Amino acid sequence: MLAAAALLTTTALTGIGFGASPAHAEDEIRIGVIYPLTGAAASTGVELKAAAELAAAIVNKEIPAPPGLVAGIGLPHLNGAKIKLIFGDHQGNPQVGATEAERLITSEKVVALTGAYFSNVTATASQVAERYGVPFLNGESSSASLTQRKFKWFFRTTPHDDLFVGNFFTFLGDMEKKTGDKLRSVALFNENTLWGNETTKLQVKLAEEQKFTIAEKILYPAKTTQMTSEVQRIKAAAPAVIMQSSYLGDAILSMKTYKELGFSPKMLLANDAGFNDSEFLKTMGKDGEFVISREVWALDQAERNPLIKQVNDLMHQRTGVNFNGNSARAFTGIAVLADALDRAGSTKPDAIREALQKTDIPASGLIMPWKGVKFDANGQNELGQGIIVQVQGGQYVTVWPFDVATKPVVYPMPAWDGR
């Protein structure tokens, strides 16, 4: 995947610049997109890039759009202009992300930015956008603090970790009622960047409020190469549930270490990210079964929203892989930004920002199982929702909320020697 990521460089094309007047026919509207295209998370970045490019192709009417999809309207109020995605590679490094944001704004003359998947990179890149007065639409980063900074130019479509972590504890309570089993003993196992640290604080707070016991709490170094001592500590604490926040490499390493040490809790609750990356199941195969994760998207929800399957089919035709929660959010971010550009009828920053503030997209126009997209005063989408999925038979299936579940939860997670 690193080789593939290396091919993802873009050539700067002449287009309208930052602060330009309304677009003329056939103009290119340049949008900066910052993802990890090389480094440990390159495979994730490749999928995010492909999803963004699919959204752009639909907006530009290069491929037919399923009826009702918000991106399918194109840019009629910009006289047939096309969006051009200009990519930046942050390599998983917050400082590189900030540098790429500045390059895209000052050299590539983009009218808006999107990205950056890693919450700590989104934090630095959006600070640059804020300084320059350029709209930044974030589709994938979930650290709650990102929309608590009182920024003027930052908007986020995905729900954040306050909601996701709250869903974890609600789900555990519902499982206790359903099974009659006690799931009050929890281990926290999170990477130590902005995302993992903030998640841990939320988990500690809610565990205390809802009378769960934290049997062990470990913040491990991001991009670690071994987890033996950490997993031994968790195994000794014997929690009923692990709540884990890991990017791809760490998620795979932890599962391999769990198996090596023969550790299998009743439930592993993953905080999306690496556990839902397409490479996770490609690498783990059957050893990735029964992981439970929070999510914002699942293919099996197409029974309730036909757009999910229709757009996923387009993604699969182009890339050979299905959407996952990460890439579906990247697609949605570009679609929402394009909707705002069209309503703005201009590439001026103030006009785009005003259009984003007035966004009101119904659920019927999205591929996400949300109530829609509408931003509050802090730029946070008020209408996003979370679901919980479990790996069953090599697929991520919805298991909670129970009223939208397509499969029952497999519980407890089978021991390694009983699979």
Automatic annotation (TrEMBL):
<keyword id="KW-0614">Plasmid</keyword>
<dbReference type="Pfam" id="PF13458">
    <property type="entry name" value="Peripla_BP_6"/>
</dbReference>
<protein>
    <submittedName>
        <fullName>ABC transporter substrate-binding protein</fullName>
    </submittedName>
</protein>
<dbReference type="InterPro" id="IPR028082">
    <property type="entry name" value="Peripla_BP_I"/>
</dbReference>
<comment type="similarity">
    <text>Belongs to the leucine-binding protein family.</text>
</comment>
<dbReference type="InterPro" id="IPR051010">
    <property type="entry name" value="BCAA_transport"/>
</dbReference>
<keyword id="KW-0813">Transport</keyword>
<dbReference type="InterPro" id="IPR028081">
    <property type="entry name" value="Leu-bd"/>
</dbReference>
<feature type="signal peptide">
    <location>
        <begin position="1"/>
        <end position="25"/>
    </location>
</feature>
<feature type="domain" description="Leucine-binding protein">
    <location>
        <begin position="28"/>
        <end position="393"/>
    </location>
</feature>
<dbReference type="GO" id="GO:0006865">
    <property type="term" value="P:amino acid transport"/>
</dbReference>
<keyword id="KW-0029">Amino-acid transport</keyword>
<keyword id="KW-0732">Signal</keyword>
